Amino acid sequence: MANAQIRSPSVAIIGAGMTGILMAIRLREAGISDITILEKAEKVGGTWRENTYPGVACDVPAHMYTYSFRANPQWSNRFAHGDEIQGYFEQVAREQGLSEQIRFNEALEQCHYRDGKWHLTTSKDAQLVVDFVVSATGILHHPAYPDIPGLESFGGDSWHTARWNHDVDLSGKRVGIIGTGSTACQVISEISETDCDLTVFQRTAQWVVSVPDKEYSEAEKTRLSRDPSRLALLRRRYAFVLRNTFSKAVTGSKLPHLLVSWLAKRNLRKNVRDPELRAKLTPDYPVGCKRLIISSRFYEAMQRDNVHLETTAINNISEQGVVTVDGITHELDVLILATGFKPFDFMRPMDLRGRDGVTIDEAWEKKVQAYRSICIPGFPNFFLMLGPNSPIGNYSVIAMSEVQTDYVLKLIDLWRSGELPTVEATEDAKQRYNAYLKAGMGKTVWVRGCQSWYLDADGDPAMWPYSWEQWVHEHEVPVLDDFVHQPPAEVEPLRPAA
Fold this sequence. Notes:
Helix content: 25-40%
Structural class: alpha/beta
Distance between the termini: 45 Å
């Protein structure tokens, strides 16, 4: 088709985190310049902007937690700290000149599809009309607060880890932390080294694998800077190890699961000396059923004299502290909630309405599902990045976003050339895709009896049950038959006379 016939779309990107930055860069490389990025906060960064708790770091090796086109030889640690990751995304955004296209401190409040376009209203009451909307709002960005009676009655300082209060000095304080997931383990490992008195309230023990957090010297950084091939090799090695150990261990490969299970159990047995404490820290579910924690510091932290593990269930929160079901009040000055996020909210509470005014809540009333994690029937030209059943878990989310971004660009190209009048997966394609996902879940570790944020309200894992290689392969070429080929009528069709 001649270039004169290629349509040039307007695109709105919601969020200037890792995926939003990536999408803007890729769109411009594809010759699409009419791009608006709406960011609710004052700067880019997403997860790494919002999570500033002590000890925050990525549990994926830093040299593979970068864009494929922008390596970073300057990481200080194998597991990069949050401030360095935030700095990396800010630097990439500057280098790419994205600041002029990002509208900071402006959230998207309404997103309605009508007359073949998306009509947007922002928190500043600005109006936009665009062809495509890309929701790059991320997965874990709506803090989940525990449903514990009396939570609001606590008389001391209290906050969620994603809303860390840096004005409060924990030194000399009686601190309680609810939760033992990945974030909690990082916080506990860090603040246990202060002179606070720390009580950890554990509902569920976690499996932990120890991987040393290597520090890179300036000489090593210089060598990596001068030799891009060495840097690329390091990235490939980390990716190979993760794909063939952790990723395969949770999706049904027997030998990788045996290896990872042995590593986790050996770590606990070797590094927790007290048999009573070790018993409390021993999970009652298979390794990998919940997100595996990567930490070389957690068990050491839990054995410090100023750290106390409380496994008795919480009854309520009082003004003085946490009251357990045995009637004991654990008096506290500070209460920290490491209780995770709401993983199924995605772009909500945005007022998102597709064709015929159908809301996203109505579309997802029975089940939060999408076609290939990205396309929602009834919401034409709308892409949900890192949606349900993306392969989230002990692998680089950046790699996932790059695969999805390339796939979205191929779909937009089909629209530009006129092969697809709109980009909208059919309901049948969505149902078949999710049946395919469900068929693969039986061999995964996520269905083996534990409760985790991976599971939806029906207890089904919102994960990818097959290999990483298979996921990449299935996003290489869009299946045209899975998409609507005739634009649905925007008005009620004429009916024959009686």
